[in-house]
Amino acid sequence: MPVLEPNPQNSHKKLLLVLGAMLAVTVVVAVIATIASP
User: Fold this and answer.
1) What is the C-alpha to C-alpha distance for residues 38 and 29, in angstroms, rounded to an integer?
2) What is the model's pTM?
3) What does each of the 38 residues of the chain score in pLDDT, given as a tens digit?
């Protein structure tokens, strides 16, 4: 897989965006749980 594709697919970008959002949500929830725990 080339690092920079001449014609990037929108579906590929969308998939990376969704995975990134899921990872970000997981990290935020973990941080909140860590702060809220006594």
Assistant:
1) 16
2) 0.58
3) 556 656 656 677 888 899 999 999 999 999 999 999 87
